[in-house]
């Protein structure tokens, strides 16, 4: 039976996945999740491939365990190949590995921390409903990393970057790598001493040399203009 939502998760996140499915289905959203929906005696891999192909959205319970799971990576790869929208539901402050980042960099994210989980489940249900309805409001419901705050340099001196500078770098970097830019800026700002060093480190995340140079140049010019 075709289900609108395919739920991908690592075994260690089974309780979270079960809670997520319960909330989605209580809101009238039919889910496919293993092992519940695998037909007894059927080929497990074939069932998963068919379920992903029939789904409209994959909700990925994203954690450190999911990040390291070859099975999760294969499911995400299959979803992207079949043009099924992937919605990462991030249950811990973890960034995707290089292999997953390739597939997830253009996706919207929902953060499901800190606890309690109930508000996060409710937001997920609203977002999935909007996506299935084709609502334009879906993107506005998506929440990625926590809003940035001014980050002090590693030696404890003045802030390495202001909130406005971090937000500006997020927007510039997102032009090249998508919404995952916010996560990368948030992570790099924790340990990078100064805005120019931060720009260079973020530029390294862009594969194209031409795009990398353009990002660095545009970021430097716009931040100098804002300071002036």
Strand fraction? 5-15%
What is the CATH C-level name of the largest domain? Answer: Alpha Beta
Largest sheet: 5 strands, parallel
What is the CATH topology assignment of the largest domain? Rossmann fold
Helix content: 40-55%
Strand order of the largest sheet: 2-1-3-4-5
CATH-scheme architecture of the largest domain: 3-Layer(aba) Sandwich
Gyration radius, rounded: 19 Å
| The CATH fourth-level homologous superfamily of the largest domain | Toll/interleukin-1 receptor homology (TIR) domain
How many domain units? 2
- Could you state the order of secondary-structure elements as H and E? EHEHEHHEHEHHEEHHHH
Q: What is the multimeric organization of the chains shown?
A: single chain
Extended strand count: 7
Number of distinct helices: 11
Instruction: Estimate the mean pLDDT confidence.
Output: 83
Query: Unreliable stretches, pLDDT < 50, 5 or more residues?
Result: 136-159
Give the distance, in angstroms, between the N- and C-terminal Cα atoms.
61 Å
Q: What is the structural class?
A: alpha/beta
**Tertiary shape:** elongated
Please give a handful of descriptors for the protein shown.
single chain; about 230 residues; alpha/beta; Rossmann fold; 2 domains; 5-stranded parallel β-sheet; two-stranded antiparallel sheet; 11 helices; 7 strands; elongated
């Amino acid at each position: 039976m075709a289900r609108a939502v395919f739920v991908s998760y690592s075994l260690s996140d089974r309780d979270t996945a079960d809670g997520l499915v319960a909330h989605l289905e209580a809101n009238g959203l039919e889910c496919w999740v293993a092992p519940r929906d695998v037909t007894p005696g059927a080929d497990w891999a074939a069932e998963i491939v068919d379920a992903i192909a029939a789904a409209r959205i994959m909700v990925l319970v994203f954690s450190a365990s999911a990040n390291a799971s070859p099975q999760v990576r294969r499911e995400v790869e299959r979803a992207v190949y079949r043009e099924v929208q992937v919605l990462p539901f991030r249950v811990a402050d973890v960034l995707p590995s290089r292999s997953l980042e390739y597939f997830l960099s253009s996706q919207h994210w929902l953060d499901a921390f800190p606890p309690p989980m109930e508000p996060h489940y409710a937001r997920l249900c609203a977002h999935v409903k909007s996506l299935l309805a084709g609502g334009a409001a879906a993107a506005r419901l998506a929440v990625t990393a926590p809003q940035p705050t001014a980050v002090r340099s590693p030696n404890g001196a003045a802030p390495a970057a202001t909130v406005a500078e971090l937000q500006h770098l997020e927007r510039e970097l997102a032009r090249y790598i998508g919404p995952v830019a916010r996560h990368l800026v948030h992570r790099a700002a924790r340990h990078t001493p100064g805005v120019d060093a931060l720009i260079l480190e973020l530029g390294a995340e862009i594969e194209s040399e031409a795009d990398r140079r353009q990002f660095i140049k545009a970021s430097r010019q716009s931040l100098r203009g804002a300071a002036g």
